[in-house]
Each structure stands twice: as C-alpha cells, then as structure tokens.
What we know:
heterodimer; A: alpha/beta; eight-stranded mixed beta sheet; 8 helices; globular; B: mainly alpha; 4 helices; elongated
Amino acid sequence: MTNNHIELKPKNYKSDIKPVWCPGCGHFGVLAALTKALAYLKIPPNETALISGIGCSSRLPAYLDTYGFHGIHGRALAVGTGIKAIRPELNVIVAGGDGDGYSIGGNHFLHACRRNMDMLYIVMDNEVYGMTKGQASPTTAPNWEKSKLTPHGTGTRPFNPAAIALAAGASFIARGFTGKPNAVTELIVRGIEHKGFACLQILSPCTTFRPEQKEWKKIVRPQKFEVTDNPIVAAQNIHADDGFSSGIIFKANYPVWQPELDIKCEVESFADSFKIPREQ
Amino acid sequence: MNERTDSFDDMAYFLRHALTLEEDAVDTYETIADCLETHNNEDAATFFREMAAMGQKHADYVARAAIGYSLPRLAPWEFSWCGDRSAEVAVIQECHYLMGVGHALKIVLDAEKNAESFYQSIVSVSTNLQVIAMASGFAEEEKEHVQLIQEKLDNFPLEGEGRYHDPDPAHIPE
C-alpha cells in the first residue's frame, strides 16, 4: 500500500454506476464513509480490491472505481482470502450483509477470523434479507414478526457478531452506525490500518423492510468501555452490551497469516507433464 | 504546510471547514439525485440536481477565497462540526423513493439550517476578526437560503399520505 500519490477526493473513488439501493438506505452511509476513508489514506483505486458476496450491500464494488469482485453468496471472504494470498500488496476489503456474512458465509467468517489475514471485513448489518424482500437473518431479533416466513418471529437468539469474532480469534473487532458517517469513516480507516483481520459491523438501517430501524439513531451511542487487547475483558464488554454501542471493541497484535508465494514457478517447468501422448 | 492549530481563530482551519461543508453537501445532493433518478422519481431528482449545482458554485467561491492559504489536512472525524456529520449534508436516510419536492424541500431546509447554525457558532467562538467577518457573511447567506426554502415550502401544496401509496410496492409478501 502506498500513499504518496496524487491526492484524490472521495468522489474520485466512485464509479459511474448509480446505486440502485432504496433512497433512505443506510448503505449510502457506508459508501460515503468508504470513499472518504480511501481518500484520507491516499490509497489509489488500483491498489484496492473490494470483494463482495450477494445481497443489497454486496452491490458495493460496482459503485467504487477500485478493483472489484461481486462473488457468490457467502463466499466473499473465500474470494478475498485468495486475492490477498496471491496479491499481498493489495488493500483487500471484503463487504457484505448480515445474511451473506453470518449465515451463508458463516463458516468462512469463523476461519477468516482465526486465519488473521491482513484485510478489512465490513458487514452492513440491517438484520434482514432485503434483496429477497424481507426475511429474518441471523441477527434478527427473535420476536420480529413482519415476514410471512416467520409470522411468530424466529424464536431463536440472534447471532452476536462481536462475540463470535472474538471467540474465533479475530484481532480487530469494531461496530459503527451509518447515522454517524464520520465515525464510521474512522473505523474503516482504523480497520484498514490494522495489521490482521479487521471485523467491522456497521449497523445500516433498511428503510424498506425494517423502517422501525430509523429509531436506531436514538439508540446507538459511543461505547462506554475502552478498547482492549485482552479477550477476556472484551468478552465481558461484548456480553454486557446490547449491541448498540459503537467504537473499537477489541484490538490485538496476533500473528498475521500470509502464505509465501513461489514466484519462480514458470509454465515451462511443468509443461512436459501436460503433453498429450502421441497416438501410436 | 503551516502548523495545525485546530482553532477557528485560524483562517485556514475555518476555510477547510467551509470548503468541506460545501463539497460534502454537493456530493450528497448528487448521490440523492442519482438514486432518485434510478427510482424514476424525476421531480425530486431534478430538485436535488439543481441544489447540487448551486452548492458547487458555493464550493467554487470558497475555493477561490482559500487561494493563498495552506489548508490543513483533517481526517473526516477531526472536523469541528456541531453534529455527527458535515454541517450542510442532507440526511439521505430521510429520503423515500416516492418523495415529492415538498419532502425534498424539508430535507434541504434542515441541511441549510444546520449550516447557518454552524457558521453562527464560529462567529461566537472565533477571536479572529477576518474569520468572524467571513463566517458572518456565510451565515447570512445560509439564512437567506433558509428563508427562501421556507417560503417555497409554505407555498408548496401539501403532499398527502396518498403520495406514498405504491400500487406495486417493493415489500411484496412472499
């Protein structure tokens, strides 16, 4: 990552593709914060790869003028891991929603946390599957009854992203809220700067299927505890919290995993093995 | 670059805020206009597009005023705004795909009021007479915008709840 290039403004990181998100969607706040973060860090667009899965939030790569890959459902972290493995010099950012990241991609989430490759994972959490018209996701409250698939609520306790990330070995865990875009920008910057796997949950209201989330602006507040590198203290803080505190919860210096590349490998060295035997 | 003072007694610090305020406002108005165009809401999109064009003129004016100053480089979270966001940024979360110009006027009115309050706050905290004079001028300008938009809003036909009725809504029970 270099930052000696020409200074770009946030809008210079946006592509010409207009977002199809609903007007009022929280994801616009993430888009704005991300472009501001990249501009602040002076990371040229061609030194960033933004990877996503499937869902409303996973449209994000199309709206930025960086390298991008709109992957398949739940596999954004697998793709991001592969890109980081082969192109370690790239600033890899993986983005998606709560369904993509915590349900379909839940297994990848666990192992990305423990693997601790140097990348930022942004989960735009609106507690609903929006693109498929409003079903309960892993982070939906058990008593949400607005979906016909769960008319009496899910009845199950919601997924706690910070607790799971901590248990799985993530080295950076933070939570933001799109109603506070400049604070989200700082969290993105800190996540990119962190050496290791940075998990950033961003509460991002869904104006269409969860209009009641407009009230989040009255609930979300800066966390009352200090960032810690002690996982026991972090666990206590996470479990004592209602999930609406924002800030950096946990930050530790864990060994970063980065495979060594055998750049000496050339096709000529194994081309013979692929020769088709001449018919006798 | 000069040493940072992070004080509104410093003209460069003030101008950095004024310029970012206008640029962020323009960027947000353009984003909203793009989004509404995508949702075939041409009336509201055109309104926000015009607001962006006006905002750009203000940004250009502030940029000209800043010539000769070395503006400090501030992280987005280091600005001394009154709230959680840049002072003249429209709150995109208040938008709706069926919104009319009346609804749009209310959103812009709030943004302009915030900008006026921001400049007024500088007038009251700065001890630099040049900064006070410029901030007073900008506050007066924002006040005019507030009055203009309020007048438009007062004379604008009320948008009833019916406006938000969509016979083919996004939320189709599955």
